[in-house]
Amino acid sequence: MLRGYYTAASGMLAQMQRQQVITNNLANVNTPGYKADQSSLHSFKNMLIQRLDPSDPSNTSLGELSTGVYLQEDIPDFSLGSVSQTKKSTDFALVPTQVPTNPNTGQAGTLFFTVQQADGSVAYTRNGQFAVDPRGRLETANGDLVMGANGQPITVASEDFKVAADGRIYENNRVTGRIDVAYAADPNQMVKLGNDLYKAGTNGDRLPSALGNQQIGFNIKQGFIEGSNVSPEQSMTDLMGAYRTFQANQQVLKAYDQSMQLVANKVGQVE
């Protein structure tokens, strides 16, 4: 009977973790470029139950017993969010038009802006809400520098510049730089760093550039921003489902507790 405690308790813990994922998504529903986390529940390996009978050497199998569930790691959903116009020259929406499908996963790859963090390390983001710092460098809201195709931070003379769909930057009708666009063939390997940033895998490998790749097409839309791809309606439905499942497991746990109380108080009692 104690196994029932573990099964119900694991279900409650899994739903608590799922609730945290969903509420974090809802908290970022208005964050530009935010990608909703997806999670799924998986069962622990079942135990094979056999009857041990000295008179039956074959040890008759009685079936399998589930040992509970757990929440698998969160995987971001990199589908494109809604694109809205802001008319700000430092806002950019990175819209893919042609991206290869990964033959191993069956999913399309993902494009990112490349940024340089304060420690010099490279990271990637879908949030194109940038600004120009006092030194004329294009930066994110967190102060990370937006990288150009030449591997150097992008600098502009002022906010009065134009960006073509291929990322080329024009000032006074002259090309002064180009925004780098990185390509992740398997976005499921991207690791969240926080502040809308990702790194490529656990080792922080550098992603290849999408510039010049004939198999990849994209448009950089200046004066537009990509919003979050979180669906508030679906998230609220999932949140209620997680809450009700938690309650169901809680009731099972209470039922087991009452049964154990009866066993402790009644079994072996001399009348």
Automatic annotation (TrEMBL):
Protein biosynthesis listed as a keyword: no
Cellular localisation: Bacterial flagellum basal body
Keywords per UniProt: Bacterial flagellum, Cell projection, Cilium, Flagellum
Listed InterPro entries: Flag_bb_rod_N, Flagellar_basal_body_rod_CS, Flagellar_FlgE/F/G, Flg_bb/hook_C_dom, FlgE/F/G-like, LlgE_F_G-like_D1
Chief location bin: other
Residue ranges of coiled coil: none
Residue ranges annotated for the Flagellar basal body rod protein N-terminal domain, each copy included: 6-35
SUPFAM superfamilies for the chain: Flagellar hook protein flgE
GO cellular component: bacterial-type flagellum basal body
Flagellar hook protein FlgE/F/G-like D1 domain sequence ranges: 109-169
Any GO BP: bacterial-type flagellum-dependent swarming motility
NCBIfam families xref list: FlgEFG_subfam
Family: Belongs to the flagella basal body rod proteins family.
Name of the protein in question: Flagellar hook-basal body complex protein FlhO
Organism listed in the record: Pullulanibacillus camelliae
Origin organism lineage: Bacteria, Bacillati, Bacillota, Bacilli, Bacillales
Primary gene name: flhO
